């Protein structure tokens, strides 16, 4: 159920995002989705890629500080109120979100979101009990459609 | 030109000075040997000093001796006779401690009176003492010297720049004591406040506690409309007042009736001939509570041969330009790169690649420590990384006693050099 996300440390200065993109491009690795967190001091680039093990090795070799984190991909109905209902459920279950971001594409009438929970295993258990549909790793790494 | 009566020893003929020095050297060496275990161990079979050149047979004392005997191990007087303690930062977080008897404080005040007098200050001058008061020797050393001179002292201590400028202006201050970089900061801030320091009665600055250059002096003198004098001293020996520039501004006169100077080769420890550049070694000739024999200052300078235009016979040393170890002086505080390593190590568990960059912003020293982020400490969470940043900054401030800016940088972004890593980039004197 868990998805492997790569995070890269970036300094907060121009031109920092292009180099990791080049490394992945040269290796033919597809970026499924990403999120960029930034502060005045530094940035963190989070990536979901088609082949995370190769990507992590290549990026470390290219000199990046790489962190591998387990995240969860959830489906929500792609309509007004869809995300709100999921959030209500998470709050009710006492699941804390560290951060979240979306896939640029959906699955039919459903959108797909990446969640970083503080306790992923406990979160998965409660989500399953609540009947929330999680998107499997294979689907996420290849193509959700 | 009139001289302050306390300045009489500044003009002693050489033979009389040498006789005085030998007499005091014999007494202080005997005192150290009799009263202090460390010297007794190092001077086995000591049978007196019979001539000044024989000082070269005495053992050196180093900063690590002070650290190893922390806090009171080098005291030659019982604590009942010690009336003051001061301390300065050491290399490992523990400070070094120095002690003064009543007589030691009198000597300190005496040399500070002579220092101020050499800069042309006298009764009637209003002296703003912006050195920090406290464990640091600068504040109290200058304070008591200025009082004994008969001047009016404003014990404002360091910091609060706007109040410093207000006092400078409203109290008709004629002389100021602070670090040269802080005075540059005052000049800059005064300009922003619409105060032109060159228009004020201020005519002299007694600047010390950090190295500075002739170009800095020129800037200070021109934009401040004052004469800028270099004062030298170190906590281990007494504090400020070991040496002072006179109105000739051609080297610093060493108060050698109390502090005996030698110049040695820092690598071999051998004495160098007069005029040669090397490490300054000082012996406290009259110190009671904590006599130091042949203390290695790590400051590189040279003794200047020949008489001074001011008439003082005290030997002069050139302005300190560099040190033989890696100590940095930032805003008047001693900083060793090893302290920075200790702090980084304490936070991260292993030592990351780092770099120290010193700059000067509006006249004030700024220290930035660049720290490479490794995969081990890196997290996908912004809060965790900000926490790492804050812990590094807090550990540095705790260890160094001054604030350092921490910047997290990517792995492999700090240049690796072959051989000894170049950790320090001092860009303060580029301006």
Overview of the molecule:
The complex is a heterodimer of chains A (145) and B (431). With 145 residues, chain A is α+β, with helices and mostly antiparallel strands. Chain A has two domains: 2-69, VC0802-like (2-Layer Sandwich); 70-141, VC0802-like (2-Layer Sandwich), CATH 3.30.2130.10. Chain A has five helices and six strands, in the order E-H-E-E-H-E-H-E-E-H-H. In chain A, strands 2-3-1-4-6-5 form a six-stranded antiparallel β-sheet, sandwiched between helices. The longest helix of chain A is centred in the middle third of the chain and has 11 residues, at 82-92. The relative contact order of chain A is 0.21. The model of chain A has no long low-confidence stretch (mean pLDDT 89). Chain B has 431 residues and is an alpha/beta fold. Chain B has two domains: 5-324, 3-Layer(aba) Sandwich (Rossmann fold); 330-426, 2-Layer Sandwich (GMP Synthetase, Chain A, domain 3), CATH 3.30.300.30. Chain B has ten helices and 20 strands. Chain B has helices at residues 14-35, 37-42, 63-68, 102-118, 137-149, 161-170, 180-192, 214-224, 337-348, 382-400, and strands spanning 82-88, 96-101, 126-129, 152-154, 175-178, 204-207, 227-234, 239-245, 252-254, 259-264, 277-284, 295-304, 316-317, 322-323, 328-330, 333-335, 354-361, 364-372, 405-409, 424-426. In chain B, strands 3, 4, 5, 6, 7, 8, 9, 10, 11, 12, 13 and 14 form a twelve-stranded mixed β-sheet that branches. Chain B has a four-stranded mixed β-sheet with strand order 19-18-17-20. Chain B is globular and about 75 Å long. The mean pLDDT of chain B is 92. Chains A and B meet through strand 1, strand 3 and strand 4 of A and helix 10 and strand 19 of B.
């Amino acid at each position: 159920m868990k998805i492997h996300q790569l995070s890269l440390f970036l300094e907060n200065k121009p031109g920092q995002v292009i180099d990791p993109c080049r490394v992945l491009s040269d290796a033919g690795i597809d970026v499924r989705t990403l999120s960029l967190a930034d502060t005045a001091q530094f940035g963190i680039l989070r990536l979901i890629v088609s082949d995370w093990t190769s990507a992590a090795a290549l990026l470390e070799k290219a000199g990046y500080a790489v962190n591998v984190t387990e995240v969860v991909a959830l489906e929500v109905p792609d309509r007004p109120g869809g995300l709100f209902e999921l959030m209500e459920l998470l709050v009710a279950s006492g699941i804390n979100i560290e951060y979240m971001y979306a896939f640029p594409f959906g699955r039919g009438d459903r959108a797909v979101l990446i969640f970083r929970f503080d306790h992923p295993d406990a979160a998965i258990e409660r989500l399953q009990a609540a009947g929330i549909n999680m998107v499997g790793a294979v689907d996420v790494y290849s193509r959700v459609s | 030109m009139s001289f302050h009566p306390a300045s009489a020893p500044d003009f002693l003929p050489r033979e009389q000075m040498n006789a005085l020095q030998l007499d005091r050297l014999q007494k202080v060496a005997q005192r150290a040997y009799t009263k202090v275990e460390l010297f007794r161990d190092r001077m086995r079979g000591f049978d007196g000093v019979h001539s000044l050149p024989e000082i070269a047979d005495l053992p050196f004392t180093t900063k690590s001796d002070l650290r190893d005997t922390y806090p009171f191990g080098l005291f030659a007087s019982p604590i009942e006779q010690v009336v003051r303690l001061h301390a300065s930062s050491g290399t490992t977080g523990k400070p070094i401690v120095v002690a003064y008897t009543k007589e030691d404080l009198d000597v300190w005040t005496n040399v500070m009176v002579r220092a101020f007098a050499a800069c042309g200050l006298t009764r009637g001058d209003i002296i703003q003492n912006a050195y920090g008061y406290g464990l640091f020797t600068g504040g109290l050393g200058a304070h008591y010297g200025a009082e004994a001179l008969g001047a009016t002292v404003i014990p404002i201590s360091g910091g609060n720049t706007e109040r410093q400028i207000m006092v400078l202006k409203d109290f008709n201050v004629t002389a100021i004591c602070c670090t040269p970089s802080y005075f540059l900061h005052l000049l800059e801030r005064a300009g922003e406040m619409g105060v032109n320091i060159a228009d004020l009665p201020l005519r002299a600055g007694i600047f010390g506690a950090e190295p500075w250059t002739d170009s800095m002096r020129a800037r200070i003198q021109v934009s401040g409309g004052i004469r800028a004098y270099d004062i030298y001293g170190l906590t281990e020996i007494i504090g400020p007042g070991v040496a002072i520039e006179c109105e000739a501004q051609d080297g610093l006169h060493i108060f050698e009736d109390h502090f005996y100077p030698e110049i040695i080769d820092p690598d071999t420890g051998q004495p160098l001939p007069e005029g040669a550049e090397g490490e300054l070694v000082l012996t406290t000739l009259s110190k009671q509570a904590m006599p130091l024999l042949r203390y290695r200052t790590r400051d590189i300078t040279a003794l200047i041969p020949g008489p001074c235009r001011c008439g003082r016979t005290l030997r002069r040393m050139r302005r300190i330009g560099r040190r033989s170890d890696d100590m940095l002086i930032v805003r008047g505080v001693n900083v060793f790169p090893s302290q920075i390593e200790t702090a980084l190590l304490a936070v991260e568990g292993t030592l990351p690649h780092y770099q120290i960059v010193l700059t000067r912003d509006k006249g004030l020293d700024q220290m930035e420590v660049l720290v490479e982020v490794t995969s081990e400490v890196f997290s996908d969470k912004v809060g965790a990384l900000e926490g790492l940043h804050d812990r590094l900054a807090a550990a540095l401030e705790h260890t160094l006693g001054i604030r350092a800016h921490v910047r997290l940088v990517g792995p492999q972004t700090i240049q690796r050099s072959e051989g000894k890593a170049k950790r320090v980039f001092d860009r303060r004197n580029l301006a």
